[in-house]
Design brief:
nine-stranded parallel beta sheet, NODB_dom, Polysacc_deacetylase_ArnD, TIM Barrel, alpha/beta, globular
Amino acid sequence: MRIVFLFSAWLLSFGALAAPGDVATLDRSTWPEQLSNPTLFDVASRAEILMFARVLLASESLDDASLAQRLGLRTINPDAVNRLRQRMWQRLLTNYNFAQQSCDQDASWCYLVEDMATLRQQAAKFQVSADSYYIKWSEPSRLFHAQYLDEQLRKAALFPQTSSEIDRFGDYERNGEQMHDRLFLLTFDSAANAAPDNTAWVTEYLRKANMTGTFFVLGKDIQARLSDRSVANLQATYSAQCIGVQGWEFRSHSYWQDWQDSVRRSAELVKSKLPENYVPLFRPPDGQRRSDAQGFFRSQGLQVALWDIDAQDGAGKLKANQSAQRVLTLMLLWRHGVINFNIKQDGVKTAMPWLVTQTALSGIGWEDCQDAFR
């Protein structure tokens, strides 16, 4: 009876959270331990997985009309929502199995999870006692995961009419779901902002840290840079890094009549001027692209490069520290994936180094950009 009561209370609280459009972030100082070794990374990972699983399970009690109201939508695509939930459950199960491999070293948040049924059972009764060492983390984490889940459900509810990174249109599109456990790829979008351009700072930081990232550039930006600097200068800026394209302009490639020319011109320009850095990847601005584009991308030798972990560091969304802490929380939850930063927001110069420092001893790895999406 106690479990039923607690679950009912949780369902009621699920309907009284943030309004649609709020961006999830979590103050990592509420977590009482540093990620100072791989085992402690697993401890924090198990906790975030169980908390998200609890919120995901609670969301399934909502019918389509209630979910649409919660997400601030008139209608939803229930098939896309259900596909997303199924993928999330499968990934949570896989991730928890990885995370519990260190339970013999630290048993915190270690419960019997053998299959999907037992994961759902543990999610249904998951709670943090008032005298727990982790109690200050509990409610902020619940709020984070409920808001984050809303973000993802809303994208799924609108898919494919409004395309986004939430789902793929085919195997010519890639995200980080197939990456190995504890492995992450850094990527950087150009976004719509003309300035500032933090590319030189970020590439220098990565080289000094012996790391790489994939920079998705706009064709018109590269053309403008070549008008006031040499090709050699641009090559030096991107030395040891990878460059994909985001189109000629930062605009939706879903309904733009010239979207093919946008992709083609950008790829040809980068490939001709920066051949050592070029990788055959197209990152759709805001994830928006056509569902019938497979033939075009295959003819161009391109893959569509999506992402799993969004820093939400666009103008006015999150401050640098909030963005960094959001990314770290999602790294603990998903345990691998493609991270998306905005190169034209100054916050990246704070958020990315903080993230690298916080995870330096945690046992994670940073994927080499040349090996990604192969």
